[in-house]
Structures are given as structure tokens and as C-alpha cells.
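Regression check, iron/sulfur cluster case 138:
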Amino acid sequence: MNTYLYSLLNQAFINKKQNELYLRSLKSKKTEDVYPVIKNIHKQTFNKISCLECANCCRTTPALVTKNDVKKISNHLRISAKQFLKKYILEDINGEMTLNGVPCKFLNKDNSCSIYEVRPEACRRYPQTLRQTQQPLN
Ligand code: SF4
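Current build output:
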């Protein structure tokens, strides 16, 4: 983890109470008032962070996978959907599927994704702050 990420983690710990109060205060605000705030924080933060330096999400959080993801990725890997499910997927009792194991089996040593072009929809949505803005970030 780089120094900036450590400092963010440290600041989050030190300011935990203030952050919780701030997050609670956002609940009373109108959605359209919150988006610009999130967009601004997202821009400031991701100007200083490269996911390729970190990849903590890919190391620690099994990505959700849809049926469409299964089709796309198994085609890409040139294996059957059945083989893909057996080798790479965990399914819970509700039928929800995730990639099995962490770190992700598709994570390369240099933190890149070996199936980047066909990565699951859930991975495409990272970081979630980007999604929250519901508008493209420049
Ligand atoms: S599929 Fe790629 S982007 Fe998604 S968790 Fe695995 S390595 Fe990360």
C-alpha cells in the first residue's frame, strides 16, 4: 500500500466519529445536492490513487458474477460455462454467484486483471463512488 493510502487510512481512523456524523448528515440532504460532493471527493481521491498500485479490492473481496458474466468470461477463456462455474465460481443458497477465492484468480502479479476486457460487471463498477455520481466523471 502506498504512503497516501496509509495516510488516508490513518486519517479515517483518527476522524472516525466526525466522518460518521458527516455521513449521517448526508442522509437529510437532497440526492442532487450530494452527487457534486461525492464527485468532488472522488476526483480528489482518485487523482492520487492508482488501482494498479493497490488492487486491495481484488485481493480481499470476491466479485459478484452474473449469468451474462459467466457467458462472456467462459467464451473468452474458451471453456464451457459448466467448466467455468466449476473452476471459478461459488454459488450461495440464494443462487448468488461470486468468484471463488481471494486474491482473485484473475489478478496478475503486477495487479492488472488477466480478463480485463470481459471482467465481471461488479468489477467494472469499481470504485463504487464513481457509480454514486450517476454521471460521467471528467
Ligand atoms: S476479475 Fe479482475 S477486476 Fe475483478 S476481482 Fe478479479 S482481478 Fe479484480
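Comparison notes: The CA atoms of residues 74 and 82 lie 9 Å apart. Strands lie at 64-65, 89-91, 97-99. No diff flagged against the previous build.
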